Amino acid sequence: MKRKITLAYTAKQTAAEFYRHSEIKGLAEATLKGYRNYLDNFVEWFGADISVEEITTSVLEEYMMFKRKQGVKPVSLWALAGQVLVQLCWRQV
Questions:
Q1: What is the pTM of this model?
Q2: 1 falls within a domain
Q3: Is residue 2 part of a domain?
Q4: Which residue range(s) make up the domain with 58?
């Protein structure tokens, strides 16, 4: 029987890994800049020490409310939430 080994990644580590993965895949520079912007803003807002497992729906909703107060439109908020969640949690096993 194989054991599944999991590591606790912080948001900052996961974002850095995602950047490397995306660069290797050859994503366009504009796309990479957009990803970096989304992720850097989220990590800055919540803190680099948050583990990926701590990113819950309520954390994401809190972040969306914060961005809404800054004037971000609802459609953009859902796109932003999707980007943050997918890109920070893609590495979770």
A1: 0.58
A2: no
A3: no
A4: 11-89
